[in-house]
Amino acid sequence: MNAQEDKTKRPSPPDSAYGSTKNGTKISINYSQPSVKGRTIGKDLEPLPGQVWRTGANEATVFEVSRDVKIEGKKLAAGKYSLFSILENGEWTVIFNKTWDEWGTKYKAADDVLRVKVKDEKAKTFTEKMKFSISNKGEVELLWGDHELEFDVE
User: Fold this and answer.
1) What rounded mean pLDDT belongs to the chain?
2) What is the pLDDT at residue 4?
3) What is the CB-side half-sphere exposure of residue 34 using CA atoms within 13 A?
4) How far apart are alpha carbons 59 and 11 in whole angstroms?
5) CB 77 within 8 A of CB 66
6) Residue 136: exposure state from Cβ atoms within 10 A (0-12, 13-18, ≥19)
7) pLDDT exceeds cutoff 60 at 2
8) Nearest Cα to Cα of residue 71 among 57, 81, 60, 86
9) How far is residue 109 from each of residues 69, 137, 151, measured CA to CA in Å?
10) ω before 34 within 30° of 0 (cis)?
11) What is the pLDDT of residues 55-81, one digit of tens each?
12) CB pairs under 8 A, 24+ apart, for 10-15?
């Protein structure tokens, strides 16, 4: 019988971000952290322009909210979702997909629950390992290379 794989030893180890909205709704994001390792994002490293990306590595990135919320003003029911994204022409399309418990590259657009668009910002500092954070106001931030993506959860 094989011992269970130690995911912390993967090249893209697991990480989590936790936070809440102003009204106390809990938000969690569980993901794996890819590293840039000298590669160029959008050329030889995801996200590639116009293509769906699992927004992390390994298993699907899981976004969970404890109550019904609004993401950038659009309704999303309480629950777990896989988080995908598309980066194109200076804009991110953030995708919340109902099929969350699977390998991250198994994307089916028919399972999308919500899509929101946000601006691709230039990060203040370079982030080697992809990192999510959640502020105490429900602001979700993704830092990856020199990219910064933010969206609001209310």
Assistant:
1) 93
2) 57
3) 22
4) 13
5) no
6) exposed
7) no
8) 81
9) 21, 30, 21
10) no
11) 999 999 999 999 999 999 999 999 999
12) 10/57, 10/58, 11/35, 11/57, 12/56, 12/57, 12/58, 14/58, 15/131, 15/132
Q: Is the distance from CB of 29 to CB of 71 less than 8 angstroms?
A: no
How many Å apart are CA 94 and CA 108, to the nearest integer? 14
Q: Cα-flanking dihedrals φ and ψ of residue 109, to 5°?
A: -60, -30
CA separation, residue 40 to residues 48, 112, 145 (Å): 10, 28, 9
Q: Which two tokens stand for residue 110?
A: 């028919």
Dist. CA 114–CA 74, nearest whole Å? 8
Helix, strand or coil for residue 148? strand
Q: Positive or negative CA dihedral for 69, 72, 75, 81?
A: negative
C-alpha distances in angstroms, 136 versus 23, 101, 133, 147? 10, 27, 10, 22
